[in-house]
Amino acid sequence: MFALSGLGAQKFRESGTTRLRRGRLLDFAARQDGKCSGEDVRRFVADRLGGHGASACPPGNIVLTYAAPQVEPGAFWTAEPQLEGDETWTRHEI
Questions:
Q1: At CA 12, angle to CA 47 and CA 30, rounded to 5?
Q2: Hey, CA dihedral for 45, 49, 53, 59, is it positive or negative?
Q3: Distance CA 75, CA 1 (A)
Q4: What does the pLDDT read at residue 18?
Q5: pLDDT category, 85, cuts 50, 70, 90?
Q6: What is d(CA 50, CA 35) in angstroms, rounded to the nearest whole number?
Q7: In terms of pTM, does the model score above 0.85?
Q8: Other residues' Cβ atoms within 10 Å of the Cβ of residue 79
Q9: Is the C-alpha dihedral spanning 35, 69, 76, 25 positive or negative?
Q10: With b meaning 16 or more CB within 10 Å and e meaning fewer, what string describes 43-68?
Q11: Cα–Cα distance between 67 and 91 in angstroms, integer?
Q12: HEC per residue, 54-89
C-alpha cells in the first residue's frame, strides 16, 4: 500500500475482513521472525480458524497455492480444502 501510494493511489478498497487478515499475516510474520518453514506457511494458510474473518483462507476459497523457489526450486504446492476437507497439500514439479 505504501509503494502504491507513492505512485499516486489514494484509495484502497477493503472488505470487512481485510484488516483482520492483514493483521494476522503481520502477526504471523513477526512471531516467526523470518525463520519459518514451508510447512509452517502452508499450515497457516490452510487454517480456516473455524470461519473467523481473519483466516487467510476464507470459506469460499477453492484452491490454495504455495511456492518458495529459493528453498524448493521447481516445486509448486496446491491444496483443495473444499474437496479434500482438510489441509492436504500436493507437491507438483514444474
A1: 40
A2: positive
A3: 29
A4: 85
A5: low
A6: 26
A7: no
A8: 21
A9: positive
A10: ebbbeeeeeeebbbbeeebeebebbe
A11: 10
A12: CCCCCCCCCCEEECCCCCCCCEEEEECHHHHCCCCE
| Residue 79: C-alpha distances to residues 3, 5, 6, 25, 36 (Å) | 31, 34, 36, 19, 19
Please state, in angstroms and rounded to a whole number, the distance separating the CA atoms of residues 53 and 20. Answer: 7
Model pLDDT for residues 52-73, shown as the tens digit of each residue: 888 888 777 888 899 999 999 9
Amino acid at 74: G
Question: What CA–CA distance (Å, rounded) separates 44 from 57?
Answer: 9
